[in-house]
Specification:
There is one protein chain. Helix content is 80%, strand content 0%. With 261 residues, it is an all-alpha fold. It has one domain: ABC transporter involved in vitamin B12 uptake, BtuC, CATH 1.10.3470. It is globular. The mean pLDDT is 85. Keywords: Cell inner membrane, Cell membrane, Ion transport, Membrane, Transmembrane, Transmembrane helix, Transport, Zinc, Zinc transport. It is found in: Cell inner membrane; Cell membrane. Involved in the high-affinity zinc uptake transport system.
């Protein structure tokens, strides 16, 4: 196998293993639109990273965290519904990122690669970012797993029992921001949330416990990466969208099977 394909498979599988358990929480907490909002803001983070001369992944994480904090602050004012705020922040940050690109006059940016991913151009340095950042994210998720489950099941009860609900919510948002930052080269800014949600939604029908769903979601994610890359190479298709189409195909195939009794 060519080295670029091995790197692509390693990167995609690393993201899939991370997206499985984290995407399960996004499905359980019904935070898909929030994930879209953070992913759309990633373009602004990339642009600011280039403007300030820092790694774009760092810029993405900073912008995503700032957006999450802004959302929490706006929600506390209770002047607009959550979906309205998410719509404003999502499209506002994406448009601001596109406007900021105009200031990069002396630097050529491959916008399509950031929007839709370029998994076949993954470098060894990208792999280091993916696996080191993924290890940190998985460790954080493992440490917070039981408390996040308790908050997901009944937030009011968790608050009564003394759990720091607001801190847990912000920690989970930070984990999502980290995943978006390290996954944007794989499936692109506009498709990251799909890789988080679709495998988890596919696994939900065939599992009984949260741990089973998280593990099976990772398996489905890896299968989608392998199938998407093979299709991309066979028919000269864009890598990131091919992975998402493969994940959606697995979901549709699974939805035709009988649910586990």
């Amino acid at each position: 196998m060519d080295e670029f394909l091995i790197r692509a498979l390693a990167a995609g599988c690393g993201i899939a293993l991370l997206a499985g358990p984290l995407g399960s929480f996004i499905v359980w907490r019904r935070m898909a639109y929030f994930g879209d909002t953070l992913s759309h803001s990633a373009l602004l983070g990339v642009t600011l990273g280039f403007l300030l001369g820092v790694n774009p992944m760092i810029g993405v994480m900073v912008v995503c965290v700032a957006l999450a904090l802004a959302l929490v602050a706006l929600q506390r004012r209770r002047t607009l519904a959550a979906d309205t705020l998410l719509g404003i922040l999502s499209h506002g940050s994406l448009s601001l990122g596109l406007v900021a690109l105009a200031f990069l006059e002396t630097l050529r940016v491959d916008l399509m690669a950031y929007l839709f991913g370029d998994i076949l151009s993954v470098t060894v340095n990208d792999l280091v970012w993916i696996y080191s950042g993924g290890a940190v994210a998985l460790t954080g998720l493992a440490l917070l797993w039981r408390r996040l489950l308790a908050v997901t099941v009944d937030e009011d009860l968790a608050r009564v029992e003394g759990m720091p609900v607001d801190a847990l919510r912000l920690a989970f948002m930070l984990l999502i921001a980290m995943v978006i930052a390290i996954a944007m080269k794989i499936v692109g800014i506009l498709l990251i949330t799909s890789l988080l949600i679709i495998p988890a939604a596919s696994a939900r029908r065939f599992t009984r416990t949260p741990e089973q769903m998280a593990a099976l979601a990772s398996v489905f994610g890896v299968a989608a990466v392998v199938a998407g890359l093979l299709a991309s190479l066979a028919w000269d298709l864009p890598g990131g969208p091919s992975v998402v189409v493969a994940a959606a195909s697995l979901f549709l195939a699974g939805s035709l099977l009988p649910m586990r009794g």
